[in-house]
Amino acid sequence: MLIAILTDLHANREALEACLAHARQQKAGRYAFLGDLVGYGADPVWVLDTVMDYVRQGAWALIGNHDAALLPGDKQGMNPTARKVVDWTKEQLRPDQVEFIAQLPYRIEWEDILFVHANAWAPEKWEYIDGVMEATRSMHATRASITFCGHVHMPTLFHLSLTGKTGEFLPTPEEGIPLSKQRRWLVIPGSAGQPRDGNPAACYATFDTDTQELTYYRIPYDAETACQKIISAGLPPALGHRLINGN
C-alpha cells in the first residue's frame, strides 16, 4: 500500500489541492495528515472540510499546535503574528470543525509506524526536532521502526543504526529511498502549506509499505493566489510573501 504523508497544511488550499492531485496520480491508497491543518493561511474552512472528508474515507489525521490553539483553554505561547491568525481562524470555523479538531489525537501507531506532529517523546508539548540530538531522542522514545513527523517545515531524513549512531541527510525529491529494517528512521516530509527551505514548492512524501520505499516530492502550485488571499483576508502580508519566497 502506498501512503501519502502530508503535514503542516496551514490553511493553504492551493498547495493542498496540488499535493492531493499528485498523490492521486501516484495511486496513493491511504493518507496521513500530521497536524497544523490551519494557521497562517486564508482557507481554513476548505482545508478542514477536505481533511474531514479524507478521514471519513479512512485517512489518519493528527492535531498540531496551531490546531490546538483554536481550542478553549489552550495556553501555549505563540508569536503575535501566529496568534493573530489563530484569532482570525476562530471566527471562520463552524462548530463541527472545531469539534473535529478537538478529537484529533497527538499520535497514531499503525503496525511498525508512528505518526506524530512534533516528536515521539512528548508530542503534546510541541518541542521541535532541530537536529541529530532531538531526532535521536525521538527515535529512542518509540518502538516503531519508522516515525513520520511534522512541525519542522524543511524536509529531512534521520536514521539510527544498530550501533546507536544517528545520521542525517537532505533527501532528493523523486528519488526512492529504501528504508532498511536494520535501522530506525525518522521522516520529516516538510510543510505542504508553508515551505521554509528557500524552495516555494509544496512538500509531501509517500511510503510504500510493500517495498519499504520512501519518496519525497516537491510540488509547484499557485503560490501567488495563496499569497493574495492572505493579504485580502487582512492577515499579515508577510505570511503571503513568504509563500512566494519559500522562507
From TrEMBL:
CDD domains: MPP_superfamily. Residues 1-211 form the Calcineurin-like phosphoesterase domain. InterPro entries: Ap4A_hydrolase (IPR050126), Calcineurin-like_PHP_lpxH (IPR024654), Metallo-depent_PP-like (IPR029052), Pesterase_MJ0912 (IPR011152). Belongs to the metallophosphoesterase superfamily. YfcE family. This is Metallophosphoesterase family protein. It comes from Undibacterium hunanense.
